[in-house]
Amino acid sequence: MRLFALAIGMALAIARVPAAHAFTAYVSNEKGNTITVIDIDKFEPVRTIKVGQRPRGIDVTRDGKFVLVAVGDDNAIQMIDPATGEIAGTLPSGDDPEFFALDPTGKLLYVANEDDNAVTIIDIDKRARIGEVRVGVEPEGIAISPDGRILVNTSETTNMAHFIDTATRRIVANVLVDSRPRFAAFKHDGSELWVSSEIGGTVSVIDPVIRKVTGKIAFTIPGLRNEAIQPVGINIAKDGRTGFVALGPANRVAVVNGATHQVEKYLLVGQRVWHMAFTPDEKYLLAVNGLTNDVSVVDVAALKVIRTIRVGELPWGVAVADR
Amino acid sequence: MLAGRLARSTRQLLIPVLVASGIVLAFTALAPAEAPAEITVGYLHRSEHKSPLSLTAVPAANEGIAGAELAIGDNNTTGKFLNQHFTLAPVELKNEDDPAAVVAALAQRGISLIIADVPADPLLKAADAGRLHDVLVFNAGATDDRLREEDCHGNVIHVAPTRSMLADALAQYLAWKRWSRWLLVTGSHPNDKLFADALRRAAARFGAKIIQERVFEDTGGARRTDSGVVQVQRQMPLFTQQAPAYDVLIAADESEVFAAYLPYRTWDPRPVAGSAGLVPTSWDDSFDQWGAVQLQNRFVKTFSRRMSALDMQAWTAGRMIGESVARTHTAAAKVILDFLTGPDFALAAFKGQKLTLRDWNLQLRQPVLLTDGRSVVSVSPQEGFLHQISELDTLGLDRPESKCRLK
User: Fold this and answer.
1) Distance, in angstroms, between A227 CA and closest chain B CA?
2) Rounded Cα gap, residues B394 and B398, in angstroms
3) Quick check: B353 and A180 CB within 8 A?
């Protein structure tokens, strides 16, 4: 009996051996005006950081020195020191920043100014605004091609993906997609661009060379009304074989075959799932559920939701850093 | 200078002719060298607005038009990338004007798309004239069910919700609250009676019981006088006393004669809904969900006032036009109608889901807001009211009950 207990104890001890990599996730809570810091080993929140008003877009600088968060109602992007949790600086983002993306060098930040029909370009080191591109009505999604040459911005009311040459900062193409495009993501080899249309209910697959829609990913969930299927966040695995699409009030993440563009599975998560992030090893995908104030953890290999982590009020975005 | 002006006027003449004849214009996304395709959208508006009881509800002189102008601006931002340029041509329809002649004159200018904010009768005359001239009319102002039913037209798209949609939206919420015993008070004008009809239908449909009906006669008299408050404070309790037990007082007063005077003045302490208190509407200036703040901010920045339901209906009509022209590259009425009734049309209008057209009567499906004047209390359809096609079709007359035969 004692031996048996000992065996169980040893088994548990082995199971508790920490993963080779230790990661930290940062979740922006739009209504709570906070960031929840999650320890990915423990799948537990470890800290709450108070930030400005209406935090939404969030990312970590390439050097890991700062967590950047767009605080829309304060018209700024705040730089948080992850070691101390203090606000270490502010970037001049222009009016109402919602979403942003870092270029591949990690030096420039492209920000969608939703109320201002513009994309602002910021030099992170200089902490200065160095340019602006005029785009369509209500710019939102931002994606940068893996070679850094093309910036794609989606505008929600204009219903377009604007292709912007990052060298000249001019629009070189406009591709009409379905209603209310929210998010854009390139495959890591740059062969495809996916754009989600929240109201249209589809993801357009765009060929970045000819800049035309070559296919559309459609979603059908038995027993769910068609209007509730509202794709927003997209995360494509590095090998391009699998894409994950967050379906908003459908409360599911779709698993899409990267080659055939067919949906292979729907994973049930929390309510109104919008944005997601992989851990750097792509073992886990974190999906942020706005209305249930939590984050679902997807085991990427098993395609299963394995954990739910409680975060702050109305969580919006998530970024994961190497600790 | 003169040559430039001449060239422009020739172009303005030429393009509408091409459009009117249904030729699909070729567009290139990035050809700034070419002159943009000019699309002029007509805006027919009434000359008189009803005078509301509350001073804060007095409509702005540009109510409705401002919404359409904002949509035209949004369309032009998109148009920059598609080489399309939109202009609004507002025309006031005075009482003595013949709507048919006004529509004919607009068609003469090459206009094939008209947003209309006029009452039902002139709207029908405009629609008849529109048929002759291949004009598509977007009804942004009239809520009459008959325009979508026995009087429906194949060339009129209804952006404004109907009275039955508004009444159903309210009834669903009251059913959820289980306020099922209604005291219905109706005004004495024809429009009030039509709204009362819609409310009676909604009560029957969603299981509410109208325990008694009363009519508030409009006897004329001054609306705002020095002693008005005293008068109203005495009249309303008297008018509402000795009612059988009820949960909610429902007022049908589109004519703005009495409903605004009911809240806090009823004999029994009961909430008021309908034309005052909790009001069903397509838009409210306090609404901030589903990205609506962006539109509200844009409107306030441009017009220095808040956005009304009529402004929103006109904006929606303008955006339906912008979407259709962006996707079909033409302003030809028939092509636009086919697109709007086809499977590819879905409008994003800050209501949390796509808006589409009911193909049997050309009514825009839309959620309805319930507002107390300070904030949005709820948005219908309410959860649990199911439908086999679209839950939005639980609001208003559904396909099987429709009397419309589109012509």
Assistant:
1) 6
2) 7
3) no
Per-chain mean pLDDT for chain B? 90
Rounded distance between C-alpha atoms, residue B182 and residue B293, angstroms: 35
Q: What are phi and psi of B249, to 5 degrees?
A: -95, 125
Would an 8 Å CB–CB cutoff place A35 in contact with chain B? Answer: no
- CATH placement of domain B163-218+228-280+369-407: 3.40.50.2300
Query: Would you call B39 an interface residue with chain A, using a CB distance cutoff of 8 Å?
Result: no
Same fold? B2-161+284-366, B163-218+228-280+369-407? yes
B354 in contact with A, Cβ within 8 Å: yes
Which helix (DSSP H) or strand (DSSP E) does residue B93 occupy?
strand B84-93
Give the count of beta carbons closer than 10 Å to the beta carbon of residue A218.
13
Residue-level pLDDT at A223:
84
**Banded pLDDT at B11 (limits 50, 70, 90):** very low
Joined tokens for residue B216: 């508030």
All residue ranges of chain A with pLDDT < 70 are 1-21
Tokens of A8: 């169980």
Q: Which sequence spans correspond to the domains of chain B?
A: 2-161+284-366, 163-218+228-280+369-407
3-state secondary structure of B103: helix
CA distance B397 to B375: 28
Q: Are B78 and A137 in contact (CB under 8 A)?
A: yes
- Nearest-Cα distance to chain A for B388, in Å, is 9
The domain defined by B2-161+284-366 folds into Rossmann fold (3.40.50)
Closest CA of chain A from B347, distance in Å = 6
A291 CB within 8 Å of a chain B CB: no
Give the pair of three-digit tokens for residue A114.
Answer: 């939703």
Question: What pTM was computed for the model?
Answer: 0.88
Alpha-carbon radius of gyration of chain A: 20
Q: Is B353 on the interface with A (CB under 8 A)?
A: yes
CB proximity B346 to A under 8 Å? yes
Lowest mean pLDDT among A18-27, A93-102, B280-289, B319-328: A18-27
CB pairs under 8 A between A and B: 70
CB contacts, 8 Å: B30 with chain A: 171-174
Whether complex ipTM tops 0.85:
no
